Known about the structure:
Elements: H1 7-17, H2 22-28, H3 36-45, H4 47-88, H5 92-106, H6 114-124, H7 133-139
Amino acid sequence: MEPLKNGRHELFIQGLLSGLSQERAYVAAGYRDKGAATHASRLARNGQVAARLAYLQELAAEKVVAEVALDRAEVIRRLDRNAETAFEAGAFSASNQALVAIGKTLGLFAEQNKQVAKEEVALTGKHPSEMSLEELQHAAGLLPE
């Protein structure tokens, strides 16, 4: 979706996205203080403004999900490397701890983190408990694309 043609409307939206209240975003966009609360509320309900705001919020949410997925994949790669190194050194307890940490990160245990499961469903369409070992390894970034 393209930026709005009205620059002040776009600035208002950017202010809202940065965490400003409607009234403060309205004034920051270059509008007068007088009646700002009422006018800001009306502007926020404007169809084009509301649609643009929703669009940008969705983009921001998608970016956060992608960043979380990349961070999880890196954590799992490092834990996998630690498990292998510990196993090769005969440190089986340390290797098992790393494997348990991988399992917890992927939500494979009863105490699984519900947020992790929601993110995996959002990314793959499947709950981690429904995924094959290969799918889990792929989701963790342990297999090539």
